[in-house]
Amino acid sequence: MTFAIAAVGTGGHVFPGLAVGEALVAEGVRRDDILFVGGDRLEAKVYPAAGFPFLQVRLQGLVRGLSLSNLRIPFTVLSSIVTMRRAFRRRSVRTVLGLGGYVTVPAAIAGRLAGASVMISEQNAHAGLGNRIAGLFASRRFGAFPTTSGLHAEWVGNPVRAQLAFFDRDGLRPEALRRYGLDAHRPVVGIFGGSLGAGVLNRIAPEVAAIRGVQVLHLAGEIHAESLESSATDSWRIIGFEDRMDLFYAAADLVVARAGGAVAELSASATPALLVPGGFGSAGHQAANAAFLAEAGSAVVVEETEVASVPRVVAELIGDPDRLATMRQAARRLARPDAARVIAAAMISAHG
Q1: Sign of CA dihedral 76, 81, 87, 93
Q2: Which ranges in the chain belong to alpha helices (H)?
Q3: CB atoms inside a 10 Å sphere around CB 343
Q4: What is the DSSP string of 284-330?
Q5: Residues 345 and 25 sit within 8 Å (Cβ to Cβ)
Q6: What is the 3-state secondary structure (H, E, C) of 111-134?
Q7: Band of the pLDDT at 279, cuts 50, 70, 90?
Q8: Which terminal CB of the chain, N or C, has fewer other CB atoms within 10 Å?
Q9: pLDDT at residue number 65
Q10: Which tens digits make up the pLDDT trace of 53-92?
Q11: Closest by CA position to 142, among listed 339, 337, 334, 349
Q12: 229 — pLDDT class (breaks 50, 70, 90)
């Protein structure tokens, strides 16, 4: 029996897919029997590097508003459906999992045409368009939040990799501090804009690094890190990409981040957060994600229009250890670190 997992774009889609793939392997599925499907972005690098078969198909996202390029979408979707259906039948795929984004709809249709069960996993509090459409074909729908607007989903959490599912901050902290060359006696603020970085967070990083007594561990994204490296100091560590996010979170006392797929990692690692939700993506999904964490008490939200206030808020939070401890406890209550295993088990059991 072969399984297919479709995910594209940024780490918020790609790494939850990888987490489910690794959970399938842990359940006894051969790595060669897990086919990942995507385009030419992050997924084309991550999945082959992890040793999984990868099917690259032609994809095109919807441009919001009037655009002639949208007229090509039906033809691109049809082409990708044909390619995927052929591959699914050849490999006897029995279950297809979509992680949202513009690959999910053709993957769901191709899966149904190939006689496979279709499942979807939604990472956000507000379901994206791809998952809302693919949900019509799905036998199971999994959500990262207790309620996911636009989708009737089972709350299992957002899949995270095993290094975060079994996260041990105290045990990892010494190794993390050594990895980044940080002082164990000074607080650490992590800045993380996602797998591609975030320009607005990168711009306020120098001001955060200027806070007296604070160290900054800045995950800037590969496309930004080189231009920032000349500004690095003993108190401002800059890295482009990190495949050991467990060590990143173990080093950080507080993380400044967007509010996409990282919110599951923040909860799994019980890391207090200052979230600056982006206005891009599906109908304000980052704002909904951030609001959920803020209401639960694990995060503080600063709107992008007020980003200049981030250094002041960071200084207030870092200066209040009791509040950070309370935020850690709140994050721990939200965590659903077993999501990848739960979804993997559902995929396996779909056909007995």
Answers
A1: positive
A2: 11-26, 42-49, 73-90, 104-113, 129-134, 162-165, 169-180, 199-209, 222-228, 245-251, 262-268, 285-296, 310-318, 321-334, 339-349
A3: 27
A4: THHHHHHHHHHHHTSEEE--GGGGGGHHHHHHHHHT-HHHHHHHHHH
A5: no
A6: HHHCCCEEEEEECCCECCHHHHHH
A7: confident
A8: C
A9: 55
A10: 999 998 755 555 555 555 566 777 889 999 999 999 999 9
A11: 339
A12: confident
Closest CA to 208 of 192, 185, 225: 192
- 8 Å CB contact between 298 and 193: no
What is the number of residues in the chain?
A: 352
Domain 2-163+337-349 has CATH 3.40.50.2000: yes
> CATH code for 167-334?
3.40.50.2000
In the numeric block, the tokens 């100091």 are attached to 233
Edge to edge, what strands does the sheet with 236-239 contain? Answer: 236-239, 215-219, 188-192, 254-257, 273-275, 299-301
335: its two tokens: 């965590």
According to CATH, where is 3.40.50.2000 located in the chain?
2-163+337-349, 167-334
Instruction: Give pTM, 2 decimals.
Output: 0.88
The position carrying tokens 């399938």 is: 24
Question: Are 226 and 256 in contact, with CB atoms under 8 Å apart?
Answer: no
Q: How far is CA 292 from CA 16, 196, 331, in A?
A: 19, 24, 11
157 Rama class: left (phi>0) / alpha (psi -120 to 50) / beta: left
Take residue 145 and report the two structure tokens written for it: 């939040």
